[in-house]
Amino acid sequence: MTDHQTTPEADLTRRAVLANLRHELRTPLNAIIGYSEMLIEDIQDAGQEDFLSDLSKIHSAGRQLLSIVNNILDSKKIESGQMNPDPEAIGDRLRLELITPLNAIIGFSEMLIEETQDQEKLLSDIRKIDTAAKHFLTLLNDIVNFQKIRSGIVMSETQDNGDCSMIREVVKTIHTQKNRADIKCGCILIVDDNEMNRFLLSRYLRREGYSVEMAENGVQALEIIRAKKFDLMISDIMMPEMNGFELLQHIRSDPELRDIPVIMISALDEMASVVRCIEAGAEDYLPKPFNPVLLRARINACLEKKRLRDQEILYLQQIEAEKKRADDLLRVILPDEIVSELKLSNIVKPKYYPDVAVLFTDVVGFTPYCDKHSPEDVLLNLQSMIESFEGIALKYDLQKIKTIGDAFMAVAGLLKPLENPVENCVKAGLEMIHATHSLPATWQVRIGIHFGM
Fold this sequence. Notes:
The protein is an alpha/beta fold. Helix content is 62%, strand content 11%.
């Protein structure tokens, strides 16, 4: 066995540490590239060409740093033997290739700080670039000694490092879980444990017209989205307390939250992490540092899909409301049993009922009365009469069949068996005659009752 052949546990640990280094180095790079891009756009819009050259050099150097970090800390190249996996060799190469573009960024940013003392808006963002570059230099000096990688390789035999433990857990989750099944509006939640990343992304989104809120970790994010509705969530993967995968699982398992679209953004750029995010229910995935044009396009796509999904839900609710309204109207016209049969089979088959009595009424001299009185007077009296007839029918267990003009028809013993349906009709008819006499029109009604074949 050679010096570089290790156990599966050590391989996983090395991979986790390399991913952690990429994540740590990309955090300040994200700020350098992002803020320089925004400053270049602002300066071009304002026509201030004096600082454009230096900012372009800072942006170019930031992109160069990102390319070097991606190349040297590529775990696939190390695993395939294309690169020396020795920690000291990796550290030396990082120092050798990163220091020149990094010094350029620090130098140009310090000069710009001196030149923009009277321009507070530019000065604030340039200082953030300078701070991020110096933080990157501190990380680089720590990495050159490679104490983290050395301890990481023997981590299973000694003690765990907090950051490595976090990334190791995420990578382990990725590899062990298998076979799991232009809009300028919207409220977006940004979830990232790095303050600079949060504010940089929020700056981009607010400039695009979005309403933005921020959370430091997954636990805080869950509290916020349960208290307020959001159209989209953008989350980092590597976070303390609750990582991005765990946050995504909580959201997708909650019926109240599962429809919130989620875009994952992380420096953990392994394809397995992309696949894992999509499998867990993420709408999309972007590597850090993000491309603002691509981010804007994917945010718009997610919001458009959510808008269409919300519209579909609204239409379905409207359909259900109209369906209920139609059912309620049908039950006013027909008995419940008939409505149920009609809904089930779309037809009502004729049935024979042997013990049924039919009552029908009409007003004596109704047509001459209509000729002599106004329509308002006729309808007012007619409505009062029919309403009283309906109440009497219910009192004696009669089901109303229909009303046409002054005619009223009801049946006894049809849906509810009665001991003597004819008697019920007679009692109801007598009460209807009395009710009609009490109307202002003093109408007289004829009552007919039919029983048998």
